[in-house]
């Protein structure tokens, strides 16, 4: 095989990485990018970042140039809380969690920039350059050509993992939405759900004491039971739920005057939004433990609050997993201390957590808490 053939083979192999990355980020939301199959598992964001990063570092070293990460401003755009030279080798689960992107196209944009650099470098390589030994400590010694095969092999392995992960996560999201869609029509037939919404609404109203014209968002609203009980004491309601079945039930309640003038929306706060709010009160009832990655959602809930506005979250205390049972894909309750940390990291103050009754299920009592926090009047 001629030297030209070898270079063409490498160029072809590397040219597949950018289109694969673009496919993997297309339409991906924050939940999909940052969800983990277990607490040790890599996220889609980490896999795609590392794939591009290791090519950049290793090929830039071969080319004796600065990686595009710093040379073209990608480190600033990602703004990760990691050392600027870090490219993911030896990362622990906390380091993986630190790789968060608000905009998924950053990942494909960076891979595109790396691909252009790699392509330009490959075009300079002749047979002698490919055979140059760069690490004689191995037997046989590592040549430039061998290193490039390792780099592209590593990238393909990680992209394969990313494709597998995205498929599993998408099916999981669909299962959750299907489950709530199916339960929506009969949700309100269960008197315990109606009663716990009434109880939670009273607790929220007592803790927050909203103005009569307060603009309210209920997130993960289900059939809007909490909002129904808040409605007589507050102003305009916005009701968000990812389940189309739940939204249909809420829309029917709007039309029947049960939730007068409420706006029903499909709002995803796993990513920042800039055209929503502001709200004087954002309330959640038993929704946060269903959110795969709660910290950024809390941060985005804080962002849609008006200055001086309140966040009120009623949820399950940590439990042994028996509440939802085998196969549940959310969290077995929410640790109030972690919720406090997420609120404070989101810039909220006056965080307060108090008990908020119990829920009976399978003959067992599960304690609930009410967490409230306030966005400072001025930041
Ligand atoms: C246990 S239900 C509670 C519904 C309502 N708040 C109530 O107490 O009757 C959980 C709700 O959270 C919604 N949900 C599930 N995953 C979510 C997510 N990632 N973000 C926001 N809401 C979600 C579901 O569609 C469902 O309506």
TrEMBL record:
A molecular-function term among this protein's GO annotations: transferase activity
Record-annotated DinB-like domain positions: 14-162
Methyltransferase type domain boundaries: 217-313
KW Transferase (keyword) present: yes
Keywords: Transferase
Superkingdom of source: Bacteria
Listed Pfam families: DinB_2, Methyltransf_11
Protein's name in the database: Methyltransferase domain-containing protein
Organism per entry: Egicoccus halophilus
